[in-house]
Write a structure and sequence with these properties.
The model has no long low-confidence stretch (mean pLDDT 77). By secondary structure, the chain is mainly α. The chain has 3 helices and 2 strands, in the order ββααα. It is 27% helix and 4% strand.
Length: 103
């Protein structure tokens, strides 16, 4: 199952299911598109947990530990952070791998 991103137009956003064979086809999409799902009028959401700021650093450190802190040493990397789900941490990960450009 894939939940599509909000950076695409509204009408193709939603939940997509993929068969074991891989990606669905355009023909599959035309069959799926008119499907309707009943949603409750009001949903009660539980409060989000308190953010543990140490988790971000553990995530960054995981890549440096696995690949080595100098893995990208001397390599210049441009980072486009517009719509990536990891946009807020990607630059930190690349810095942790020794990337050479703060683009």
């Amino acid at each position: 199952m894939v939940v599509t991103g909000s950076h695409i137009p509204f009408d193709p956003n939603g939940i997509k299911f993929y068969p074991a064979e891989g990606e669905i086809s355009k023909a599959d999409e035309h069959t799926i598109a008119p499907a309707m799902v009943k949603v409750l009028q009001a949903l009660t959401c539980a409060p989000l947990p308190v953010v543990d700021s140490s988790v971000r650093q553990m995530y960054v450190d995981r890549y440096a530990h696995f690949s080595g802190a100098a893995y990208l040493s001397g390599v210049h990397v441009a980072v486009y952070e517009h719509s990536s789900v990891a946009r807020d941490v990607l630059d930190d990960v690349l810095r942790g791998l020794g990337r050479g450009c703060g683009c």
